[in-house]
Write a structure and sequence with these properties.
Largest sheet: 12 strands, antiparallel
Number of helices: 10
Radius of gyration: 20 Å
């Protein structure tokens, strides 16, 4: 399953992997001594090649903040999280230190840094799969793969520290395993490679971040008043306001070689946001009624927009338009 880029960019507005293939079928290679795994930050397991979009969250931080906790309850009720954990071997993503969802043209990859009961997670995967085609244990990573819902699926358990699952064309999860084992020394993960490295630096730290690498060709190039045609990457973040209750601070970034045109591009960025805020989706999510005014700034390499949003209105609006999509992603 893959989520269309249009949906992802729309969510940003309110908010390939190395072709390693599948492990040899029905092969189990066991090594006695456990090898160290590097899964923190988890986002460093995501390959840049053919990446279409990337979302990074810190669920444990989010659920500990009242503003986010209320918004999450509106978007995804507790019973859905409970059911998800039950059907995925006890993996409760609310307790995850980090959750990463990455979209590729024919693949969706989900990674969670959370305590894992490996055998239980494997059993849950096998019960969901129509057929289990193979299993491997190499170094400290256990992988199981097969078919689920007519689509290739593969599970990776990173010791007791993390778990990953991919659905679709194989490749991104294998790359994630190699990154965790430090076997891709000459390759940089997505947020440390251009064009996303510059976007990640510009957007800064936040408990929710999302990115889409350029180039944005064809119909995407016309987005945001034509700015996407010149952008190398787009990024967004969301965090609770430190000064206003029930308010999110949303930041959006477009990186590119803006040069002397940066000031004019910033004006177009602000105008594009105002236009979006007043269309039906913007009104539904409360963008047309910001808690604090929209502020845009620019330098030669990045356009930055910041706005305060009513958390309740945003959560209700997103629930209306994305609940099905979020449920599908989490159901992986």
């Amino acid at each position: 399953m893959t989520i269309p880029r249009r949906r992802v960019l729309a969510t940003l507005g309110v908010l390939s992997a190395a072709a390693c293939g599948v492990p040899p079928a029905r092969t189990s290679i066991v090594k006695e001594a456990p090898s160290p795994l590097f899964v923190d930050p988890l986002v460093d397991l995501v390959a840049i090649a053919r990446l279409a979009w990337l979302v990074q969250l810190r669920p444990r931080d989010l659920t500990s903040q009242p503003t986010f906790a209320r918004a999450i309850a509106t978007l995804i009720p507790a019973w859905r999280f409970d059911a998800l954990a039950e059907h995925h071997g006890g993996v409760d993503i609310r307790r995850a230190g980090e959750l990463v969802v990455a979209g590729y043209p024919e693949t969706t990859l989900v990674l969670a840094r959370v305590g894992v009961d490996g055998p239980r997670v494997e059993r849950a995967f096998s019960e969901r799969a129509a057929a289990v085609d193979g299993r491997s244990v190499e170094r400290s990573v256990t992988r199981v793969w097969g078919a689920a819902g007519g689509t290739h699926s593969q599970l990776a358990v990173f010791g007791r520290e993390a778990v990953g699952i991919e659905r679709g064309q194989p490749g991104p999860l294998s790359a994630a395993v190699y990154f965790a084992e430090k076997r891709l020394k000459r390759s940089a993960p997505a947020l440390r490679a251009e064009p996303l490295a510059a976007a990640a630096e510009a957007i800064g730290d936040a408990p929710i971040r999302a990115f889409a690498p350029g180039p944005f060709a064809e119909r995407w190039g016309a987005g945001l008043g034509g700015l996407l045609s010149a952008a190398t990457a787009a990024g967004a973040s969301l965090q609770a306001s430190s000064s206003r209750d029930n308010t999110f601070v949303a930041r959006f970034v477009l990186t590119g070689s803006w040069g002397n045109a940066a000031a004019a591009a910033a004006e177009r960025f602000g105008a594009a946001f105002d236009l979006f805020a007043n269309d039906p989706l913007g009104r539904l999510t409360g963008l047309d009624r910001p808690a604090t005014p929209c502020h845009v700034q620019a330098d030669s390499n990045a356009l930055k927009l910041e706005v305060g949003l009513d958390a309740e209105a945003l959560a209700r609006g997103l629930a209306a338009v994305t609940t099905g999509t979020l449920a599908d992603i989490l159901a992986l």
